[in-house]
Amino acid sequence: MRASTSRRIVFTAYDGVSLLDLAGPLEAFRVAADFALKEQRTTYECIVLSARGGRVKTANGIELNTKSARSISGKAIDTLVVPGAFRVEDVTRDRALIQWLRKTAPTSKRICSVCVGSFLLAAAGILNGHRAATHWLHAQLLASRHPDVIVEPDAIYVHDRKVWSSAGSTSGIDLALALIEQDVGREVAIKVARILVVYLKRAGGQSQYSALLDGQALSEPDPFNELEQWIAEHLRSNLRVKALADRVHMSPRNFARVYVQTRGRTPAKAVEAIRLDTARRRLEETTARIETIAGDCGFSGEEQMRMAFVRGLGIPPREYRKRFASTS
Description:
The protein is an alpha/beta fold and 328 residues long. It contains 15 helices and 10 strands.
């Protein structure tokens, strides 16, 4: 019988830690150990520790009983995960934890942060010279406080050598799925994703934003919200300014002016962004031909879609699919 392989995953905790930042990836590894990895005889040993051990109060008001950092002294760590908090100042308050990370991280096989846990890794000097992700709200602050860190403000997660970092809280699950895939393969990671009822996977280079949410977040509810939803559902329709203006009962000139004022971009740019969003999801989730996707998303052809991808994402559709496709 093949010997069982055990991988030790250590999660750091501290007063003010976000429960979701910790529990999301922890649950992914637990599911992997309990359900998906038995046939491969690979297990995950998950440990939640704090600098001194004992009770730690999360930002959600729930207390966790943690092991002490000393309790695993001398033991190998396969993956070290640093969750974030609701407030950045809570992340770096525990100086003993920072010192422990500074000493322990170099001997860990992988070091990871979730959301603003990146500030803890940065405070310990672990992110110096590395590319890193964090929540988009705090990306500029991370860059200003730690100029030696190469912050990628729009990525869901970033993998740079043995350091992994993820964006907002739920992206910790995306990160865990990527780690599970690296450990034991895509098929197992898909099984875990299905059990958790999440997608496998929002790839690291994808944007933290969507075109619809990005536009709607700029203003109070208005007729443009429903219009943009209609656009997303009718990408092959006539989406010129006059046709869109007619739908919201405005003159083309007034519509274009008010739209730019409320959305910060022209209607044409918005239509292209929504088409681009839809096209990239189709590339990730289906095996449809690029020419077919271009037509379904309202592009005049594959070349027009290619130009939109290069403008918006910096890579052409074929390269995007190679990097981020979720289908086998």
